[in-house]
Amino acid sequence: MNLPALRRLLLALLAGAALVAAAGCGDDDDDGGATGTATGGATQAAEPSDVSGTVSMVGIWTGDEQKSFQAVLDGFKERYPDVTVNYNPAGDNTPTVLSTAVEGGNPPDLATIAQPGLIRQFAQQGALQPLTFAREEIEANFPKDIVDLGTIDGELYSFVFKAANKSTVWFNVQAFEDAGVESPETWEELVSAADTIKSSGLPAYSIAGADGWTLTDLFENIYLRQAGPEKYDQLTDHEIPWTDQSVKDALTTMAQVIGDSDNIVGGTSGALETDFPTSVTNVLSENPRGAMVIEGDFVPGVVTTDLEPGADYDVFAFPSIAGSGPTVVGGGDSVVMFKDTPAGQALVQYLASAEAAEIWASRGGFSSANTQLSPDAYSDDLTRTTATAIAEAETFRFDMSDLAPAAFGGTPGQGEWKILQDFLADPAKVDQTAQKLERSAARAYRDRE
C-alpha cells in the first residue's frame, strides 16, 4: 500500500479494467434502491429503522485492509440491519475501474479513492454527488484542512477516512543512545544530531534514492514548514513557478540532509541504488547501517524485523523549521458518492463517525484524521503517536506530488522524481534543479489542461 498514490494510479492504468463488471453491482435492480427517495445531497439520512436497500462500493483496500474494512462494515450492519453493502476490492485497479464505470454510465454508489486529482476530475465531470447531507458532521469531526481538501468549487465531495502521516522520522534507539542524542524537535537540532551520530561512527541517514517519491516527500515536508501553507498551495497548483525563491530555499535546506555523502548509508552513490524497503532495513536492524529513515507512518510495515517497537526503534515528528507549528504532509483514502440514496447516505455518515474509525484503529494498520476518535483506540503507542498527529496538526496538506499531474509528480524516471534524484547526486545545483523542475512542471500542467 505504501507507494505514493499517483504511483498506484500509473500501475492501475497499465493493469487494465478487468474488474469493471463488478463496479456497478447491486444497482441495476430494485435491491439497489432504498425506502424513500433522496433528492440531491441535501436530504437528511433516515434513522436506522427507516433505511433499507443495497449499497455498492468500490475501494482500494484488499487483503488485511479489506478484512479490517469488513469489520467496519459489520459495525454498520449492526446499526442498519436492513442495508446490505457489496464491497468490490479493486486495489490498484480502482482508478481504472471507476473511470471505466463512470464512462459506461454505471458507477457504484460509493467508492474510496486515494488520488485527490481523480476526485476533482470526477466532480468536474458531474459524476459525483455532493456530501451536503453529511457536511455538518464532517466539519465537526475533521480538521478544516481535511474539509478543504474535499471541497471543490464550494461543494464538499469527499473526506479522508484512512489517512497516512508522511511527516515522521524513524530511528534506531541503540544508535541514538550510542551517540548520546535525543529526538530532535527543530531542524537545527536534527542537523546537529546527525553530525553527532556521524562522529559516533554510524551514518545518520538511510535514504531510498532509487525511489524518487521518497525525495519528493522530504522536499514537501521542508517546503510546507519553511514556505508555509499558502505558498505550498500555490506551488501545488503551479500558480508560482518552481524557480520561485521559496523553492530554492527549500532545496538548500534539503541539501543539509543529502549533501554530506559520508553521513548517508552507502554514500550518495549507494543511496541512489537503495530502494525504500532496503532503506528501512538499514535502520530497523540489530546491527543498523544507519540511524534514521525519514518517511511516513508506514515505515515499520514494509519490512520484517525482530526489533521491539518503542524499545528498539522509535519515531519522532518531522522537525519544526523556522518556528513552524505541528504540521503534517499526508496521504489518504477518501470516501466519495456517485449515486445518492438513503442507504448510501447512511454509510457515508457512519464512515464519518468516530465509531467507524475506532473499529479499524483497534485492529491496527490505520490512522484517522477524525478529531473525535480517542487516542486510546489505537492498538499501540507508536501508531497512537503518528496517527493523533494527523488530527492534531495545525496544518495538514496532502502530498504535493500526488496532487500534481502524473507526468510531473508521479512517474519513475521523469519529472520531479528524476530531477530530485539528480539533485541527490549533486546537491550543489540548486538553481539548475529549480529550473529543471519548472520546465517539467510547466509542460505537465499545460498538457493536463
Write a brief structural summary.
This protein is of the alpha/beta class and 449 residues long. It has helices at residues 5-15, 20-23, 63-79, 94-103, 116-124, 135-141, 144-149, 173-179, 187-199, 212-227, 229-236, 245-258, 267-271, 276-281, 342-351, 354-361, 381-392, 400-403, 406-409, 415-425, 430-448; strands at 53-59, 83-89, 110-113, 151-152, 155-156, 159-165, 168-172, 292-294, 313-317, 327-337, 395-398. Helix 8 (173-179) crosses helix 9 (187-199) and helix 10 (212-227) packs across helix 12.
Provide key terms for this protein:
single chain; about 450 residues; alpha/beta; D-Maltodextrin-Binding Protein, domain 2; 2 domains; six-stranded mixed beta sheet; three-stranded antiparallel beta sheet; 21 helices; 11 strands; disordered N terminus
